[in-house]
Amino acid sequence: MRLLITGGCGFIGTNFVRLMRQRHPDWTLVNLDKLTYAGNRNNLARLEQEDDKYHFVEGDICDRQLVQSVLEEHDIKAVVNFAAESHVDRSINDPSPFVTTNVQGAQNLMECARIHGIERFVHVSTDEVYGSLGSEGKFSETTPLAPNSPYSASKAGADLMARAYFETYGLPILITRCSNNYGPYQFPEKLIPLIFLNAKADKPLPVYGDGLNVRDWIYVDDHCTGVELTLLKGREGQAYNFGGNAEETNINVVKTILQILNKPESLISYVTDRPGHDRRYAMDYSLAQRELGFTPSVSFADGMAKTIEWYENNGPWLQAVQNGSYRTFMNDWYKER
Ligand code: NAD
């Protein structure tokens, strides 16, 4: 396998690269990442130093010439597209970069892959494209797309483009739609690392609205396994849902972290709700179970314990992300490991 991974310096991409390296030592992995604020090259610095089958390329998925030359130079056979602007709150402040990267960038990758004659293309999407659920039911792959935020609308745009590239050009594309991920290397603008940091510092813990919005939480390695299974076994043109079988309210997630850290609930501070905040997501992943043999392997309790332990043991990683030194390649965090 000669695989191009885009966005490999982000949260899920980093975990995916590390897992694929462990499971498939013979694969060539090329990581194309623009290194936006969310990309941290130090996450994979050791691989970059020591592994001649891992290659890092700094660049933009919107850049036609660059993507074409990476595909040719490395004789790429398959693509997994993680690259995206991924934070809903940022998309509310300014949707433009979300359209540029998540729609135009994804389309550019598909076009380059088509011209190159790629054998497999996995486009990584999200449960948020389906919109919001009431208290009952789950999203299946046939649930109509009804995105509510600029982020989810941009992801849905790329999903539709992926469908069109399959139907029109026969591009061997597959889509994964996964629920909320958590685990090591998540940027601390997202709920779990943010709450961890604030709780450790005895600062208020911001919780949107009444805290009763429900997400289906999945440990990041389980999502990465879903992407791997899709790459290896999925039916071309098909979308697959992935979830962690762990529906939790935001407030329960926050209370779980407080319990693990032995901190008081008085730190919780309810703040004005996010506009267009989806109430509930839940995933029916039975198709992935039947066709790919997927099943989430990490329970919410175990996954949270592992995640908090990782943040406890990697304080310098969090500090580097907070003070901006993560932007320097081979920073102190990396050297200390
Ligand atoms: P992230 O924000 O942590 O990482 C995104 C990565 O993409 C960064 O390394 C960034 O530098 C890179 N990137 C951004 N724009 C780029 C561009 N134009 N060209 C090249 N690289 C670029 O995101 P994440 O949480 O790891 O999510 C990865 C993917 O998974 C996204 O497509 C996201 O929509 C999807 N997803 C995320 C979740 C979740 O819970 N985090 C759930 C389902 C799906």
Automatic annotation (TrEMBL):
The record's EC number reads 4.2.1.46
This enzyme catalyses: dTDP-alpha-D-glucose = dTDP-4-dehydro-6-deoxy-alpha-D-glucose + H2O
Which SUPFAM superfamilies does the annotation name?
NAD(P)-binding Rossmann-fold domains (SSF51735)
Q: NAD(P)-binding domain location, by residue?
A: 4-306
Going by the UniProt record, its keywords in alphabetical order are: Lyase, NAD
> Under the GO molecular function aspect, what terms does this record hold?
dTDP-glucose 4,6-dehydratase activity
Q: Which cofactor does it need?
A: NAD(+)
Specify the superkingdom: Bacteria
Its protein name is dTDP-glucose 4,6-dehydratase
